[in-house]
Amino acid sequence: MLAAALLCALPVLIPTFPPLTDLPQHVASVMVLHEVHFGSFVFADMFAFNWFRPYWTGYGLVWLLTPIFGVVWAGKIVIGLSVVGLVIALLLLRREINAPAILDGAFLAVPFGFAYEWGFLSFIVAAPFGVLFLVHYLRYLKGQVHWLWMIAWMVFLFFGHLLILAFTCVIASLLALRAPWEIRTLLGRVAPLMVSIPLGLGWILSSVEPRSVSIPIDWQLGFHRVAKFAPDMLSMDYSIMSMALAPAVLLIPFVLGVRPKIKACNVLPLIFYLAFMLFVPSTVFANFGTYERFQIYGLMCFLFLFADADQEVPESVARFVQVLLLIPVLVGVLQLSRMTMKSYGFDKESSGFHEVMAYMEPEKRALGLVEVAVTEFARSPAYLHFPVWYQSVHKGLVDFNFAAYRSLNVYFKNQDESRIYDGLAFNPELFDFDTHEGYLYDYFLIRSSDNGLAQKLFAGDSRVRFVHQSRGWYLFRRSNPVSKDG
Fold first, then answer.
1. Is residue 355 part of a domain?
2. Fewer Cβ in 10 A, N or C end of the chain?
3. CA-based angle 4:10:14, to the nearest 5?
């Protein structure tokens, strides 16, 4: 199983630039961090850093590997190790709760869900640590781990990802609901978890922007949440086949005679996960994909049902045991194979970007305008922030840039450094050279359809000249000299 888990790194390691939507932005932030402190970054004076923030675990690991592998490979390696780590962490948790190994093969499918395809670097990195925290918390409940160690876990998870900290603390508090039931004993079990409260409040008070609060909550409630519940546990696409196959896989332990012990600490984690996935908003405080990203913990919560469970295989299925045990393995292997083939196909498809980027000088400022962000090789708009890879590779600066968000770890000192906001990233056709200060940019990197944005945006504009195009990517350069006054 360990060898199979290691193969989970392939989908992120195969392509030069993985089809993970936000990953270019996060890797570029680490590049800024590294170059400001140890390099000669020409845009260094534009940036500042928030040190009391989640995300630093992911950023720190990439930063640590950057001098050895370069920032792009460092990001890929950290993501790959995190994907592998999640599978291994789930195996360790399953053993810790003494659950049957029936669904172990399905763990291979779990990492490749919403958070992975959207490239939520810090969330992906923190996810396996969240599971390992629960392993250690269960040992704490048995008296095998000191409470100071649990507080250290709280602080570590905070700097990994605040949402991971909050979610796993709730799960941990539910796991604490076991005999003996004396109030003093229960309070002692959950006492270390209380450290998460001042950490969370400190972050909220110091970082939440008025802009984030003003953005309406997007609930996206509906039957689709119910239909996707089982497929999400196995990171499957939303289809009729997945809606039939995923529940069938989850029923296999019951078919094989596993009888859950109905205890609060076994049942409540799954009930909480169900309520979370059905009723938590999709976007809150400008945080996109709030509930969707937690599908990676669905199978984990399901496993708690089978903690210390008894098993007696019914005679009616005894002859089919080996076939039934093979099904979760096949699901995991097929998902891993599918993601690997998608990555290979995406690498071929995105080769035009490499060709166009070869015409760009290093240490320049560029504007990415992506009209066609989708691809058949990913469920997310994989090309949305793709131009930002130039920033990491050639130590330039690309807008739209996550540094425009002052609440993030790496941000623009002066928020007027860029007139390009996230709205333009989703609507590049709204770009206007004068309104958006096009004179600031050396290059304009466009992904467009054959008769789309690239052919229309700069038509007849002498301030910009065409440089090169390849496989849907178009490169334009600002004509020199161009000033603010034209």
1. yes
2. C
3. 160
Based on the domain organization, do 323 and 373 belong to the same domain? no
Q: Do 185 and 309 share a domain, yes or no?
A: yes
Listed in sequence order, the residues at least 6 apart from 344 whose beta carbon sits closer than 8 Å to its beta carbon are: 14, 15
Q: Residue 466 belongs to what H/E stretch? A: strand 464-470
Q: List the chain pLDDT tens, one digit each, 486 residues.
A: 778 899 999 999 999 999 999 999 999 999 999 999 998 899 999 999 999 888 999 999 999 999 999 999 999 999 999 999 999 999 999 999 999 999 999 999 999 999 999 999 999 999 999 999 999 999 999 999 999 999 999 999 999 999 999 999 999 999 999 888 888 889 989 999 999 999 888 887 777 666 666 678 889 999 989 999 999 999 998 888 888 999 999 999 999 999 998 999 999 999 999 999 999 999 887 788 999 999 999 999 999 999 999 888 787 777 888 888 899 999 999 999 999 999 999 999 999 999 999 999 999 999 999 999 999 999 999 999 999 999 999 999 999 999 988 889 999 998 777 777 777 888 898 999 988 889 999 999 999 987 788 888 888 888 999 999 999 999 999 997 655 555
In a domain, 363, yes or no: yes
Same domain, 312 and 383: no
- Residue at 115 is within a domain: yes
pTM above 0.85, yes or no: yes
The length of the chain, given as a count of residues:
486
Q: Peptide bond before 481: cis, by omega within 30 degrees of 0?
A: yes
Beta bridge partners of 476: 444, 466
Which residue range(s) make up the domain with 402?
Answer: 351-478
Residues 333 and 198 placed together within one structural domain of the fold? yes
HSE toward the beta carbon, residue 65, CA cutoff 13 A: 17
Residue 472 and residue 390 share a domain: yes
**Is 483 part of a structural domain of the chain?**
no
322 and 358 both lie in a single domain: no
- Which of 312, 341, 370 terminates a domain? The answer is 341
Q: Are residues 324 and 357 in the same domain?
A: no
Which DSSP string do the residues of 3-61 spell out, in sequence order?
HHHHGGGHHHHSSSS-S-TTHHHHHHHHHHHHHHHHS--TTGGGEEE-SSSTTHHHHHH
Give the residue ranges of DSSP H helices in 142-195.
147-160, 162-175, 183-190
